[in-house]
Write a structure and sequence with these properties.
- The complex is a heterodimer of chains A (547) and B (361).
- Chain A has 547 residues and is mostly helical.
- In chain A, 41% of the residues are buried.
- The N terminus of chain A is likely disordered.
- By secondary structure, chain B is an alpha+beta fold.
- Chain B is extended and about 100 Å long.
- The chains are: A mainly alpha (547), B alpha+beta (361).
- Chains A and B meet through helix 5, helix 7, helix 8, strand 4 and helix 10 of A and helix 3, strand 3 and helix 7 of B.
- Strand 4 of chain A pairs antiparallel with strand 3 of chain B.
Amino acid sequence: MSSEQPKGGANKSTPIPDNAAVRAADALDSRLGIYGAAKKNLRKVFPDHWSFMLGEVALYSFIVLLLTGVFLTLFFKPSMQEVVYDGSYVPLQGIHMSQAYASTLDISFDIRGGLAMRQIHHWAALIFVSSLFVHMFRIFFTGAFRKPREINWLFGFLLLILAMVNGFTGYSLPDDLLSGTGLRIAEGVVLAIPLVGTYVQFFLFGGEFPGEDIVPRLFTIHVLLIPAIMVGLVTVHLILVFYQKHTQFPGPGKTEKNVVGLPLLPVYAAKAGGFFFIVFGITAFLGGMVQINPIWAYGPYNPGQITAGSQPDWYIGFLEGSLRIMPNWEWNIWGHTLSFNVLIPSLVLPGVLFTFLAMYPWIEGWITGDKREHHLLDRPRNMPVRTGLGVAWIVCYGVLWVCGGNDIIATHFHMSINTITWIGRVAFFVAPVLAYLATVRICKGLQRRDRDKVLHGRETGVIKKLPHGEFIEIHEPLDAAVRHTLTAHEQPKPYELEAAEDENGVARKVKRSQKLRSRMSHWYFAEPIEKPTAEEYKELTSGHGHH
Amino acid sequence: MSSQDKSEVPEEHLPEVHASAHVPAEGDPFADPGLPAHEPRVTDIDEKAANRAERQVAFLFVISMLSTIGFIWAYVGIDKYRIIDIFFFGKIGAQNLALGGFLGLALFCIGAGAIHWARTLMTDEEIVQERHEFTSDPETREYAIREFSQGAADSVIGRRPLIRRTMIGAMALVPLSGVVLLRDLGPLPGTKLRHTDWKPGVELINEATGLPIKPNDIVKGSLTMVLPDGLVEKYGPAGQKEELSHGWLEKAGMSAVLVVRLEPEDIKSKKELDWGYEGIVAYSKICTHVGCPIGLYEQQTHHLLCPCHQSTFDLADDGKVVFGPAARSLPQLKIHVNEAGNLAASQDFAEPVGASFWERG
């Protein structure tokens, strides 16, 4: 690849070969018209940034889940029929257990590579949900969800929810003591639903808990229903990324109207394809070397037994935490029980937290009134309120997550469980607010720093002594590319209400929603750190007053 | 969309050969200087370096091939029950370790090779492509809406409300069949959540031994897990294991009970004392929060802690909640000693055990 090659496509002098592959492509083209699609897509440009890799991690761990999952279904028996274990794991021989549990033991001990596949599957699930979260926050903090990508944000959001639900159903399948405990808690939550709770529970479990139906039913949901929906959503998600083209960070040569990066064939294909193998390789290492969910140590499920320190997979931990720190409010009215101690933490609170996330593109769009397309990403510091809200959300989620392990904290750090729980109750309300305030301040501080850098240049660390004895640090002016990058962002003005009276002195009717929007908009764009103007810059760099 | 040759690329997107660090005398100092010129890598200009990179990529691919062979060797060559002791890792299955390790290496090296190839030998010259606006132009918009309106008009759905309404009705009703079909997912709850397997006279069976319990078996400070007779695996007279009846797991999930002995003077409630036997009291083991079995007993304070969500109950005071998210006391099982000298239930629980539900009241 010589550097004389013109940008934007293949050199016209590249000869058209005549070989079997081209003839086969010709044959396909005459039936499917593949050259049209290839012309558009083969050299499609993808911008490069390390954070664009996060969604790839999610995609690839999803593929790993599908591959290892198919292997596991070949051996797993989704049945709760009671059998006596006679496999090779000595401590459980002769014990009554469900077929689901016995076949999971067989996968772990008697099928070669079975344990590795099980552990790769479990590790990939943890990585999948983690990468979905981190990917989503990349989108959130850089404003990539803005028009025209709101719909794709929603598809991604649905994928996150489905991933968590499917993680929980998978965790419940082996029918060991830990997974049964998770199901028992789920049963308690279902029972707390007003009006229909007991019916839903009896229909879900096919009778009283645990029954013999829940594992086969969850199996169908886990391997067929949810994965099928997810494959569909992933496909649409990727088609939209392709069709709408990827966003890019501001920088020299990058505009709202172009996309700058490396071509799909060969660079992006090699990097992305290679990265799939790296993700798969790392999960395979984990599956071989790092034990996860050793179900043989827990024993078969029995609703009368439990182990201390029972913990769900990490992404369910926040629900566990909210259940733990909720005060014990329960109402009895007209012969009916309303269990706020269960309903609020397990249904209302996650509903509010995640609905906020799902709706955020529309919330922000309404506040800012911005109807334009955006393809250049925001640097998080330049949108302090949005960044603050995101961090507050993460902190809120994090507090609940930590509280989900309050017993572990208590035993490890020799603290009172009651104290930890109370700290969690207070922190749930206080910590997000503090995090929001701190984040906004940090963002504004970073904006000030950018402003200083643009106006005064980069601090070189070189100290110079002037003839009259004064010491100064030499500042090096930024080059045009960095100057542009640091000043490329917009600073929108808050939405102002029209004057209360029109030009004829007639009172204008101002809708309440408009007032709210104006207030929100002022909050959103309040007290901006004005980015440097050309005049300021010229004033400072025209020879005098440099320091 | 891709700009096939130079002439199609708009002027402002072409690279400026020397991005200037100097301040422009006039004009916008923050203007976009354009895409920076491509900086060649070592492998672009030094054939030796490029050849070295080629060998490195090939080396990674060869490692991958060897690892796949290693994987197959581990599958057939290592005994699946062999345990090895590795420093730091501890005792682990040799075959699983080798399978995971070789598979990981085989996959990782393909990835590392491909990425190294892309980073050293494939072009790193950035390409600029135009974005297209998503909003359709007015003619297309008008054309599409007109076509749709024509189609709708041709269907006469607007002029024939009877068809429209009955169609909507039919479509709204047809999913009902699907809902009705779900009815047989399970039985109706009825009063099943209100009753357990404890009946007057049913003996308390120690879950660990399978034997009935005499008052002297319960020592102070101990916690004994108990189930009603018929739900614990026992050995028959001939020494053969008695099979448990179908559904014992569901019954155990409702009827699990724990028995402790307290000093009668420590018991704060008259009712609790009366429902026990000489300080021996029996409580439901199923948490009133969301139904976990409770198992952590603090003998000094008589507090019982649920390991799931840390609800804490005072066994010396009617099982009242002293901390945590549970709202209701643990139900107490009334017990007595029967003619055989064994502990037995006097009646079923007076209230439903376990998690709250809407009809509980």
